[in-house]
Amino acid sequence: MLAAGQVFAQKTLKEAYKDYFPIGVAVAPRNLTGPEVELIVRQFNSVTPENAMKMGPIHPEPGRYAWEAADAIVDFARRNGMKVRGHTLCWHNQTPRWFFTDSTGKRVTRDVLLARLKQHISDVAGRYRGKVYAWDVVNEAVPDTGTSIYRNSGFYEIIGEDYIEKAFEYAHAADPDALLFYNDYNTENHSKRERIFQLLKKLKAKNVPVHGVGLQGHWSVYEPSRDDLEKSIRQFAGLGLAVQITELDVSVYPKEHERRDGAAASKQSVSQETLARQADHYKMLFDVLRKNKDVVTGVTFWNVSDKSSWLDNFPVRGRKDYPLLFDENYAPKPAFHSVVDF
What does DSSP say about strands 83-91 and 134-139: parallel, antiparallel, or unpaired? Predict the structure, then answer.
């Protein structure tokens, strides 16, 4: 492992982008001790809880909240002068099962689910009022395919499409000063981008307190194109919304559309040629982001380094990915230099 002085000899991310936008990173409590702490504090000026504030982890049972992990991340950020992005107040994918059912296991009514949603958002956003500057309020509410604007989730099936506007209203009431974001992935896909745009346009027309859109940025060395990224940024900004890249990583593999096993792939290491391609792609992405600094108000990387990424084993089981700016020993990769040297 390289010594800290070797790792940090050059300009840092937050120094390079001090005149552009905050540079954030998704963290878990395990990242807040040990060798990653210096890397996080030196390189980044914003943190996002990777999982600790999602509905299931923070509210596992009726009337019981598990605050410890989220509190630890918020306290770490405040001690180190870092911003906090809250993630996420309403998401179908990690909602605890009890949220949608009564004591007999039957599906709850619209009124009951709205009351539970309001209580959850009020409690969580209220606890961190004044400590979290921005929230991903609703996450991934638009399906990947088809023509529907709305994903057929439990929230949509029970409440209807207005669960989204209600969530924003509840969040705004709990913390009127927080910036409220709609967050989604595949925002550079033409069909999905158009449907997300229509959703946000409807919310804005109703004066729902939505302030920005999060483009997750789970990309690869093969996509998106410069034109597609720029179109997404400018189209959403045309609604008067701030744009943030909320979950950035650049996989070294083509995008997979289905989960599969890939045990043989786990033995593969990443080639210098691929790392160079990744660096070129990161350079293009940040060229576009800097060019649009009038509307891009934050960029957050999803995980600290290649030592541990959510893309390890996903979507291909047994496969290691190398999607970030720092390698498994926390040393800067070619992609790091392509992002900070401009």
Answer: parallel
Q: Which of 67, 82, 85, 76 is nearest to 34 (CA)?
A: 76
Which residue in 313, 310, 228, 226 sits closest to 266, CA to CA?
Answer: 313
- Domains for the chain: give ranges and CATH numbers: 4-253+262-340 (3.20.20.80)
Which spans in 44-109 are helix H? 55-58, 68-79
Number of residues in the chain: 342
Rounded to an integer, the average pLDDT of 164-192 is: 98
Partnered with residue 138 across adjacent β-strands are 90, 182
Mind listing the pLDDT tens digit for each residue in 70-125?
A: 999 999 999 999 999 999 999 999 999 999 999 999 999 999 999 999 999 999 99
Q: Please give the positions annotated as active site.
A: 247
Partner residues linked to 296 by β-bridges: 243
Q: Are 65 and 103 in contact (CB under 8 A)?
A: no
pLDDT in tens, 115-160: 999 999 999 999 999 999 999 999 999 999 999 999 999 999 999 9
Specify the residue for token string 């600094």. 293
Whether the upstream peptide bond of residue 22 has omega within 30° of 0, thus cis, is no
Between helix 226-237 and helix 190-205 the angle, nearest 10°, is 10
Compute the C-alpha angle 162/163/167, nearest 5°.
120
- Exposed/middle/buried for 168, CB within 10 Å: 0-12, 13-18, 19+? buried
pTM here is 0.94
